[in-house]
Automatic annotation (TrEMBL):
<feature type="region of interest" description="Disordered">
    <location>
        <begin position="82"/>
        <end position="105"/>
    </location>
</feature>
<feature type="compositionally biased region" description="Low complexity">
    <location>
        <begin position="87"/>
        <end position="99"/>
    </location>
</feature>
<comment type="similarity">
    <text>Belongs to the amino acid-polyamine-organocation (APC) superfamily. Cationic amino acid transporter (CAT) (TC 2.A.3.3) family.</text>
</comment>
<keyword id="KW-0472">Membrane</keyword>
<keyword id="KW-0812">Transmembrane</keyword>
<keyword id="KW-1133">Transmembrane helix</keyword>
<feature type="transmembrane region" description="Helical">
    <location>
        <begin position="21"/>
        <end position="43"/>
    </location>
</feature>
<protein>
    <submittedName>
        <fullName>Cationic amino acid transporter 1</fullName>
    </submittedName>
</protein>
<feature type="transmembrane region" description="Helical">
    <location>
        <begin position="55"/>
        <end position="73"/>
    </location>
</feature>
Length: 105
């Protein structure tokens, strides 16, 4: 691609675009959760509440941050210069940090 080509033809979106996409993803997830809670029957939650609400919310938080972390990693891969070198090491580092955090007491 020539240096004088318009920015909308570039392969990697600007950081503001990925930020906006992340915000849209979070809004969609919150919308789904809110609509789901309005349509939920409380008697379906009885098997889950035996685990305790603290465990339910901590599990939900882990899943939420895993989703956001994956989104950040995939966005960073698009902007990386040495993709084949940095991508595997960053992915494995994030997975190991997540594993240690999730399974620590």
């Amino acid at each position: 691609m020539s240096p004088s080509s318009p920015p909308f033809l570039s392969r990697t979106p600007p950081a503001s675009t990925t930020l906006h996409a992340s915000i849209v993803h979070m809004v969609v997830i919150l919308f789904i959760v809110i609509v789901g809670l309005t349509k939920a029957y409380t008697y379906n939650l009885a098997p889950l509440t035996s685990l305790g609400m603290r465990r339910i919310f901590s599990s939900s938080a882990i899943l939420f941050f895993a989703y956001i972390g994956f989104n950040v990693i995939s966005s960073m891969k698009k902007q990386s210069r040495k993709l084949t070198k940095t991508s595997p090491s960053s992915s494995s580092a994030c997975q190991s940090r997540s594993s240690v955090t999730a399974f620590s007491p």
